[in-house]
Sequence to fold (262 residues):
Amino acid sequence: MLQSMYSGISGLQNHQTKLDVIGDNIANVNTHGFKKGRFNFQDMMSQQVQGATEPGANQGGTNPTQIGLGTQTGSIDTIHAQGAMQPTSRELDLAVAGDGFFRIQNPDGGESYTRAGNFSRDSEGDIVTEDGYYVLDAGGGTITIDEGASNFSIGSDGTVTQVMDGEPQEAGTIGLATFANPEGLEAMGGNLYGETNNSGDANNLEPGTGGSGEIAAGMLEMSTVDLSEEFVEMISGQRGLQANTRIITTSDEVLQEIMNLK
Fold:
């Protein structure tokens, strides 16, 4: 069987995966705090036809002769670039201007991390995500705004200040975490990321310290997806997929010609 057919199949499968990544990016163009993915191709091992030779006394050297065997998935990167800020004027809409992630307590007691800061208060006054997960402070505890507070605000340093009987009181400080390799974080769904062996341990910080970034209250971080860029990538992926179907068709026609030789 012609090797070109199998090379075409590998190209077909991986271009389909590239289109899957683009489809996910476009679907999340309006998801707050979403970080777009990027598919990277990698060539497969090559068949050695002839090895390289070194120059001799009376003859120069020759380069290796190899035939590539197709393509494979190199990686699917998550690009953790800073997203644009969308003003909302809502007190519990928060964005991070920097590299930090909000610390979130999972229902099982563990921690996850997010860049989506569209928080709210539950009936106990605790600050929670839209799924009801607790937002943690710098010390790993929950942050509660007293139900008797007449007003509250959140500063750029993450300090939550509530007004009780006309007097300002500190209710806690929004906690942030940074990672040595944020691209190593695992997407868990629900705008959450989880720590992995390659992300490094979470470095828990207060906003404005250690490169974590400052808190922007009344703002939300928008998705990093650029539709014009995705459309160009989609056209590139579609043409690549079409070209790979063509090599399979051509290889099949060659096989048909060989069968008709008899």
